[in-house]
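Researcher: Please predict.
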Amino acid sequence: MALDPLLDITFNCEGYDAQGNYGKGILYASASLSAEVTGLDYLSTLSANATLSGISIAGNVVTADVLTAYAMLKGIVYLIPSQVSWVWTTKVGAVDFTVDKTQEVSSRPMPWDGWTYKIKKFGNSAIVYCQNGIAVMTPHGVLWELKTLMNVGLKSKNSVCGTDDTHFFVDKTGILYKMDMNGIEVHDYSNFLSTLTSATVMSYDPRLKTVHITDGVLGFIFSASGLGKGPINITGIGYKVGTFYITAPGTITTDPLQICTDIIDLGTRGVKTIYEIDIGIALTKPLYVAVDYRWNKGQDFFTTPWTLVDFSSRANITASGIEFRIRAKVLEYEVIQIDYMNIRYLETENMVDA
């Protein structure tokens, strides 16, 4: 927006007006400004109401695109620290946070800035999960001992789940942890979980002892066997009067269960031809296998078509190369565990079992 130089006019407020009156003086305005500051991190929008007073003077009306005003704010400002990182305790069975002489009601800040996301029971203690750290609070009489566990906070306010003696959580960097009475186990998987967003939700299934990790775009299932892909929109799992419930904002869809081995060369760098795969697995649904193969490390893998495993747990499949990956999938939901996998192949016209 530019100023038209033709409208850049200087007014003599002590001169004569259009009616011949002298010395009407300078226009003045009084303003009152009020606002409520709710926290150092989040400020309300300041608002001002102004009233213009003076003697009306008849004359020409001058309009401009830009009006510049100068104001001075006076008064006493009180800054009250934000308490989003504080934890409050009450008397047993009460919801009243009024402080009294018993010292049973207390409040204290956590060692970090940011929000306190969740407080979960853990044995006789409470674990405080925060935006920028994790702590444990242990009662001693009416007092609480605070101990820092980690200086890295949660991925989101709902990226923690579990029972009263076992917790699972994902930190800001995407590392998955399990905490029980024996300590904290690091399971990592950050190469997958680091891409989760602040909408991450974790839910624990006590029946299958699995953890669902979702954010509406990605979905994973963690179990004692490792991490796998799962539904993307599960937001809660629980039991009530013996009935299993699962919640989601929409239809829950499950992709076909699929696993893939690491790269294998079957113990030799020569060219090999796989012709049969024998899989030991307890399964009632149809199982399919495929083979990724390539002839050197600089190549992308090629993949064979999916082949149905027969009633004797064998699949006749052909793939030649130096390096391989074995794939398996089930089109319907089922919990599976592979006991063994035998790969039969030919090398320099010799039949070999691996």
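Model: The radius of gyration is 35 Å.
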